[in-house]
Automatic annotation (TrEMBL):
Pfam families per the UniProt record, alphabetical: adh_short_C2
Position of the signal peptide: none
Gene Ontology molecular function, alphabetical: oxidoreductase activity
Family per record: Belongs to the short-chain dehydrogenases/reductases (SDR) family.
Organism in which the protein naturally occurs: Sanguibacter gelidistatuariae
NCBIfam families linked: PRK07231.1
InterPro entries per record: NAD(P)-bd_dom_sf, SDR_fam
Keywords tagged on the record: Oxidoreductase
Protein name per the record: NAD(P)-dependent dehydrogenase, short-chain alcohol dehydrogenase family
Length: 254
């Protein structure tokens, strides 16, 4: 992986307890950033914080539900109070339910998905931007999905939420570009994470069919998502904002 030097900077990562969030948090820490680990699994967050601090890195575990704006605001305040700034954010927390027809999905399921996947990104970005505005700098990367670029039978609400993330990203990028703040999104394909492993084990995802639909012929890895987030967060991408970057093995190019 290409390395970056984020010494003296602070990264804020939601959904940091496992999968892409944990891998990205590790990458930020290895690049010298202090990292706020935000999520709902206290044990997983604490374990990752211990792992990073034992390696001589700075990490802070914060239990918060991104669907609750007050908890997000408190997490941002705690991060700034502890580390002194908020320079980079990866708004990664998200959920997905088993496939269901659009005519059969409950309003409760729709509300739960959008509460985390869309409102959670909105709330996180809102309070990150408020802090970055006072600093006059910052970079935010929102986690959309290949589902933000294409439709998906049986997952209308999930894809709607991920399309919404791109609307938030582009609008905020336009508004904050003059202030020196960049806002981008990544659109991961099918990545080998604990969530995907559970989907395969539970019969929600046919691995053979999934691999056949990916031109590169394999699942993505968490560290490949981390590499994309770190590039977008770094000075190497200083003229890049408002993009929706597919990281999907060419799935959405078909």
């Amino acid at each position: 992986m290409i390395t970056y030097d984020f010494t003296g900077q602070t990264a804020f990562v939601t959904g940091a307890g496992s999968g892409m969030g944990a891998d990205t948090a590790r990458a930020f820490a290895q690049a010298g950033a202090a990292v706020a680990l935000v999520g709902q699994d206290r044990d997983a967050l604490d374990a990752l914080a211990v792992e990073l601090t034992e390696q001589g890195q700075q990490a802070l575990a914060i239990r918060a539900d991104v669907a609750d704006e007050e908890q997000v605001a408190a997490a941002v305040r705690q991060t700034v109070d502890t580390f002194g700034s908020l320079d980079m954010a990866f708004n990664n927390a998200g959920i997905m339910f088993a496939p269901i027809g659009a005519a059969d999905e409950s309003a409760e399921a729709f509300d739960k998905i959008t509460a985390v996947n869309l409102r959670g990104v909105w709330a996180s970005m809102k309070h990150e931007l408020a802090q970055m505005r006072t600093q006059g700098s910052g970079s935010i990367v929102n986690c959309s999905s290949l589902g933000g670029l294409v439709g998906g039978a049986g997952r209308a609400s999930y894809h709607a939420s991920k399309h919404g993330v791109l609307g938030l990203t582009k609008s905020a990028a336009l508004e904050y570009a003059p202030l020196g703040i960049r806002v981008n999104a990544i659109c991961p394909g099918t990545i080998s994470t604990p969530m995907v492993e559970r989907m395969i084990a539970g019969g929600e995802l046919d691995l053979t069919a999934a691999l056949a639909a990916i031109p590169m012929g394999r699942l993505g890895r968490g560290e490949e998502i981390a590499a994309s987030v770190l590039w977008l967060s770094s000075s190497a991408a200083s003229y890049v904002t408002a993009v929706a970057l597919p990281v999907d093995g060419a799935y959405t190019a078909q």
